[in-house]
Amino acid sequence: MSETRQGTVPVLELDDIQGTVLRRRPDDYYGVYLLYRIEDPAATKRSLREVLPKVTSAVDWERPRPFTLNIAFSYQGLARLGLPEDSLASFSEEFRAGMAARKEVLGDLGANDPGNWVPPMGGPDVHIGVMIIARAPEGLREPVDAAGRLAGVSLIYRLDVGVPVTGREHFGFRDGISSPYLVGSADQPLPGQDAVQPGEFLFGYPDESGASPKGPAPDVLSRNGCYLAFRQLRSDVAGFRRYLRDNARSPEDEELLAAKFVGRWRSGAPLALAPDHDDPELGADPMRNNDFRYQEDPRGLRVPRGAHIRRANPRDSLTDTVVETGIHRVLRRGAAYGPLLPEGVLEDDGVERGIIFVFMGASLSRQFEFVQQVWLNGGDFAGLGTEQDPLVANGDGNGVHTIPARPVRRRLTGLPRFVTMRGGEYFFLPGLAALKWLTTLPDPAGDPATTRPSQRPEDDR
């Protein structure tokens, strides 16, 4: 520990933390997400020991390495590896239940229901998740080959990702600008970046309360680990374009409406700093594009209170309420998949495209699920009643988005679903020492149980 004027700063064990927790992917990237089913636990553990040297730590991330590789396990996967029952029971209820069982909390209903997900997601066969990112296509060969050497497993899903030629996600917005700064990490915070205690995201460190959150047992398993939520989200780019065209007064107004949906112009320039016109230079400047607050805009005249980025991170909007935003922050990683829909095309071509959303943190319920349920799928916290996030909520064609203005507000109605859930799962991302420890577990006797707990955790209340 060291001392600063803000108090005690924990020293993070960077060489034991899987790198994706602390380090963002490069702006130019190519990658692949792999899902495996464990067939032979003993063979899997032997081969995992061979793959361990390829797993990227937070230290390795900064070295001149052509790729990063990180590994996570579902509840089912940990059970298959032979984790003892008392250890399995020490994981959080939502992790043990799995993402599909939490559909009511997450709002994964209708078209987003797990019954409509791409197999094998939502089922019992997703045991191991491997995330690989490289700066160039040729950088993928070594880590994909290493993952391919995993024995005792079946590859059941592969999704290739990569930065679109525009450098933006499929709706056209610059992505990945805002993220909390973990106190004690090697990076320096950027202007406007909130400093959050590392225990909010990693087990073994103090959180915003000053205490260390309780992780799964034993300590060797939880230390430097965290929960991870993986979601594949399809983007209806044609539908988004049509809605803007049909509800805008001019091409310039289309861009303004898009910005009012998100809270930023497509360039990344925040409405809080550029309320009337886009400013691409501002959007591209990391020293300025996230340095703003909402307290001077309580009515949402600049950034609507229901805009996506104001919902996902209300910043100082809730200062005078009982909600402590610091304990609900989301550490997000992700990537785009699928080809771009050509510019100007207003009809869907049937091709899969969208984003992979990856959340990491110490609490699935208090962080990811809270943000999803209360801030994205609800409106009460912002005085908006039943209004939902205009871009990513589970819309049914009756959505509403209010844009405050003088003299008369603007209300967009009939919002369809622009983003559809294609599948996901909850994982645990262990530290490197924990990964090695998992490979030493005794093999379970007989055929280990691979089913969820007999009751959903919320039914036990």
TrEMBL record:
UniProt family annotation: Belongs to the DyP-type peroxidase family.
Key words, A-Z: Iron, Metal-binding, Oxidoreductase, Peroxidase
Transmembrane segments: none
Protein name, entry field: Dyp-type peroxidase
Domain of life: Bacteria
Cofactor(s) the protein requires to work: heme b
Renumbered residue ranges of the record's region Disordered: 272-298
Domain DyP dimeric alpha+beta barrel, first and last residues per copy: 16-134
Species this protein is from: Streptomyces telluris
A matching Pfam family: DyP_N
NCBIfam families: Dyp_perox_fam
Basic and acidic residues biased stretches: 288-298
Keyword Transferase attributed: no
MF (Gene Ontology): heme binding; metal ion binding; peroxidase activity
One GO cellular component term noted in the UniProt record for this chain: cytosol
